[in-house]
């Protein structure tokens, strides 16, 4: 698959262009600490080189986000190819037993629904398969002071389930938060599963907390908690709540 995706670039490349691309790849890896990622399908060698040069000036934290998005494009493209190949194989007859073929078809069906079905408005009589392939709330942590993912940070996800409708600014919240799940960030800065994979997320107020004091003993924040609310109209959406961390500052945003 990778050769096919890069066929346009290889067909339009020159010896001098390939050498320049190799030189810029080496510079990129030295600056960012990882290889240059781009969805190369349909792109010429000149386009790829131009994109590499443009992205080289990015801040490491910004470039890591772009690289993650490009990797997602590549993964989705290959899943579509896998689904298409399975469909063609089925049309010419399967060599597997009925039971094995049925299991394979179910797996491919889940992939296909994830790629093509909208997040909302599923038919009332849709098959009982989950459209999601990951929990509806996820996170990762980037250490902006080092320009790299932050590994080994403990993460907790909680939901407000008190008799009060929602926590208030300045109010007491003892006993109102219920743990949904906990994990630790991996070498890519991403946490493990913090909650069950469900199609419809329960609306309400959530809190995600990070044990930053253990990661940065000399830092200003012993821990960081982010409180956010999910409306009933958003229950089929995905919520990615990252933490951009340094010893004396942090920020966050709602991603997808």
From TrEMBL:
Keywords carried by this UniProt record: Decarboxylase, Hydrolase, Lyase, Purine metabolism
Domain Transthyretin/hydroxyisourate hydrolase positions: 137-255
NCBIfam families cross-referenced by the UniProt entry: hdxy_isourate
Biological processes annotated in GO: purine nucleobase metabolic process; urate catabolic process
Any one GO molecular-function label of the UniProt entry: hydroxyisourate hydrolase activity
Pathway given in the UniProt record: Purine metabolism; urate degradation; (S)-allantoin from urate: step 3/3
Entry GO terms, CC: peroxisome
Binding site for substrate: 140, 190, 253
Top-rank taxon, per record: Eukaryota
Full protein name: Hydroxyisourate hydrolase
Organism of this sequence: Gossypium lobatum
Reaction(s) this enzyme catalyzes, per UniProt: 5-hydroxyisourate + H2O = 5-hydroxy-2-oxo-4-ureido-2,5-dihydro-1H-imidazole-5-carboxylate + H(+); 5-hydroxy-2-oxo-4-ureido-2,5-dihydro-1H-imidazole-5-carboxylate + H(+) = (S)-allantoin + CO2
Limits of the Oxo-4-hydroxy-4-carboxy-5-ureidoimidazoline decarboxylase domain: 1-80
Residues passing through the membrane, by range: none
């Amino acid at each position: 698959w990778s050769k096919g995706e890069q066929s346009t670039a290889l067909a339009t490349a020159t010896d001098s262009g390939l050498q320049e691309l190799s030189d810029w790849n080496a510079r990129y890896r030295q600056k960012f600490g990882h290889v240059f990622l781009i969805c190369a399908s349909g792109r010429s060698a000149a386009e790829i080189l131009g994109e590499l040069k443009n992205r080289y000036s990015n801040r490491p934290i910004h470039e890591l986000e772009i690289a993650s998005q490009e990797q997602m494009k590549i993964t989705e493209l290959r899943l579509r190819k896998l689904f298409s190949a399975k469909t063609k194989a089925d049309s010419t007859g399967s060599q597997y037993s009925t039971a094995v073929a049925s299991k394979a078809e179910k797996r491919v069906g889940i992939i296909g629904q994830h790629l093509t079905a909208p997040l909302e408005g599923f038919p009332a009589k849709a098959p009982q398969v989950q459209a999601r392939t990951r929990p509806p709330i996820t996170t990762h942590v980037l250490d902006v002071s080092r320009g790299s993912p932050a590994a080994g940070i403990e993460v907790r996800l909680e939901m407000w389930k008190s008799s009060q409708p929602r926590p208030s600014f300045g109010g007491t919240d003892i006993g109102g938060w219920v743990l949904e799940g906990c994990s630790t960030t991996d070498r890519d800065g991403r946490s493990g599963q913090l909650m069950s994979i469900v199609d419809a997320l329960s609306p309400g107020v959530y809190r995600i907390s990070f044990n930053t004091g253990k990661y940065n003993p000399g830092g200003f924040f012993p821990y960081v908690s982010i409180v956010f609310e999910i409306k009933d109209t958003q229950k089929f959406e995905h919520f990615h709540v990252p933490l951009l961390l340094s010893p004396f500052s942090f920020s966050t945003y709602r991603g997808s």
